Inverse folding.
């Protein structure tokens, strides 16, 4: 082609040799497995390319036909030039191949990349070749006479994959361009010089225990800096170096899955897996990189709670406070977290209403507490059956149940030195106000509930009997009168009786005693007020002169009933009469009537009530 870059000859030649080499080998060996063929291609291709690159005698043919010109053959060059001038009309232009150079190649001499040639060059020294562009003069140097291009430095495709340069042919004497400048590319040919890397490693993953085979665990990814397009330098295959037979990895997707069923976290919780990524499709000679994956089995509820022992023994004092814990039971669960939580309950026994059991959320213990008071003298022991059951049940493992366990709890009640117990929580006594001194007005009783049954001594709390009106017999609890009583002064007396054990004075009980003073008729009636009556001289017979009333400090059960009468010296007085006022019962009253209005008398009235 004239005036254009032709990039077919050099590289086409390389593939020609590769194809010939492989096909020749195939012909000689017969049919071989496809995998082996691919391995040979990956191994021989870069070597043949390297060999072709080093051939210093290969360069570009003129015109449209790609040819290889032997180095230093000027006679042959002239002959071909003359033939081309005859066969082709006078066309201008460059004739070359697209150029390649292997990366990482270094030797004692600069590497010949290729040769530039123009169809205007008759083989004389009139043509001067000039190179410009990426790396011209530093990385790539051209022989201005022959057009040979050499790489002066070791190249790395991963740093720069291709270089764009410009070539021009000028007259050596005048430096005038003989052709317009033409652009071409030198590509750095990849070799497998980079191993795969796991940039995100090491990895950590989790999978539930007891998972079925093939359960997804995680996915890893390796990268290879080599050319993913050319050859198999970046074609990765994954495998497991450590971690079998528990896990497997898909060779091309790098997905890690479980390989064994029913892996039990309680047997082994953590697995250390080593993953390898190998390029060249995993073939021999490929580079490899490794990473680690720490796989942790997460817990599922596949274990029931189990009591550490089938029988528990506890003892408790009978005077323990309500709500106090008396013991703990523990059902162990091999699971963890929510799967290990259990609830406790009393399901049988003779103390289901006496005791209760709750769960300690921190330790998962069952705490037994007292709900009702205990009495050693009434019942000395209890037997309970407690149950521990998982709170959260996984339906996948329900067939492995039941997820609960039971244990027996025996509780012994121990005797405590209890204070005396009165026969009644309160006492009410009655006594007439005219009762004699030292007369017995009532009795309290108490006993020691303990088996030892200590004797009891009684006393009065004098803070409740400051006037010391009562005494008590310390032996039998009989209460006697110490001073006279007056119902009209104090109708009620409230005292406290103290019972103390003679063997242990710290054991004391108290009981309130209310004493009611009963009334006797020991007070005479009294007029409610003094009266002075006045009567006009023209008063009419039957006229009410005065109404008088009476009161009595006593309090008879049926109420007061008074009898009214005039003084004895006035009984026969015809001028005045006195009678009961039937319209009023309390206080009783009387009326004075004047039968003769012309006489005025002063009346004195004596009042009395029936006995």
């Amino acid at each position: 082609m004239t005036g254009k870059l032709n990039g077919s000859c050099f590289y086409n030649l390389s593939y020609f040799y590769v194809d010939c080499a492989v096909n020749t080998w195939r012909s000689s060996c017969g049919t071989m497995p496809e995998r082996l063929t691919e391995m040979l291609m990956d191994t021989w291709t870069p070597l043949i390319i390297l060999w072709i690159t080093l051939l210093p005698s290969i360069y570009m043919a003129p015109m449209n036909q790609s040819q290889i010109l032997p180095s230093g053959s000027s006679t042959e060059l002239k002959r071909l030039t003359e033939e081309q001038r005859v066969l082709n009309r006078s066309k201008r232009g460059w004739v070359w191949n697209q150029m390649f150079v292997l990366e990482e190649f270094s030797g004692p001499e600069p590497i010949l990349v290729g040769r530039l040639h123009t169809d205007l060059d008759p083989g004389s020294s009139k043509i001067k070749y000039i190179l410009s562009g990426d790396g011209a003069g530093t990385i790539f140097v051209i022989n201005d006479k022959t057009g040979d291009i050499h790489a002066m430095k070791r190249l790395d495709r991963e740093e720069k994959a291709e270089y764009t340069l410009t070539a021009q042919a000028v007259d050596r004497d005048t430096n005038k361009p003989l052709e317009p400048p033409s652009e071409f590319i030198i590509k750095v040919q990849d070799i497998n010089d980079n191993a795969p890397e796991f940039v995100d490693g090491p990895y950590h993953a989790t999978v539930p225990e007891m998972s079925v085979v093939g359960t997804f665990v995680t996915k890893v990814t390796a990268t290879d800096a080599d050319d993913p397009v050319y050859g198999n330098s970046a074609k990765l295959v994954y495998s497991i170096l450590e971690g079998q037979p528990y896990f497997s990895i898909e060779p091309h997707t790098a997905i890690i899955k479980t390989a064994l069923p029913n892996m039990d976290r309680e047997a082994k919780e953590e697995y250390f897996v080593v993953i390898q990524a190998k390029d060249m499709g995993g073939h021999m000679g490929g580079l490899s990189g490794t990473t680690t994956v720490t796989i942790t089995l997460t817990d599922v509820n596949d274990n029931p709670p189990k009591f550490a022992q089938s029988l528990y023994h506890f003892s408790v004092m009978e005077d323990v406070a309500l709500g106090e814990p008396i013991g703990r039971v523990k059902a162990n669960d091999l699971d963890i977290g929510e799967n290990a939580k259990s609830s406790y309950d009393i399901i049988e026994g003779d103390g289901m209403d006496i005791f209760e059991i709750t769960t300690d959320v921190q330790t998962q213990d069952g705490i037994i507490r007292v709900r009702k008071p205990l009495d050693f003298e009434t019942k000395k022991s209890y037997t309970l059956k407690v149950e521990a059951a998982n709170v959260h049940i996984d339906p996948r493992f329900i067939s492995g149940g039941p997820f609960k366990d039971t244990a027996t709890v025996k509780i012994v009640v121990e005797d405590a030195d209890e204070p005396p117990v009165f026969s009644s929580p309160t006492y009410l006594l009655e006594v007439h106000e005219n009762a004699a001194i030292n007369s017995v007005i009532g009795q309290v009783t108490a006993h020691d509930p303990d088996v030892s049954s200590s004797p009891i001594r009684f006393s009065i709390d004098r803070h409740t009997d400051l006037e010391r009106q009562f005494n008590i017999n310390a032996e039998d609890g009989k209460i006697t009168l110490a001073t006279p009583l007056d119902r009209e002064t104090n109708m009620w007396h409230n005292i406290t009786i103290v019972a103390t054990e003679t063997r242990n004075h710290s054991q004391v009980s108290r009981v309130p005693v209310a004493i009611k003073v009963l009334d006797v008729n020991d007070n005479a009636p009294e007029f409610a007020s003094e009266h002075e009556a006045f009567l006009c001289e023209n008063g009419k017979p039957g006229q009410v002169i005065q109404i008088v009333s009476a009161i009595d400090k006593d309090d008879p059960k049926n109420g007061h009933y008074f009898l009214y009468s005039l003084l004895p010296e006035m009984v026969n007085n015809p001028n005045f009469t006195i009678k009961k006022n039937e319209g009023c019962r309390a206080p009783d009253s009387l009326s004075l009537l004047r039968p003769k209005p012309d006489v005025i008398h002063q009346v004195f009235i004596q009042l009395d009530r029936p006995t």
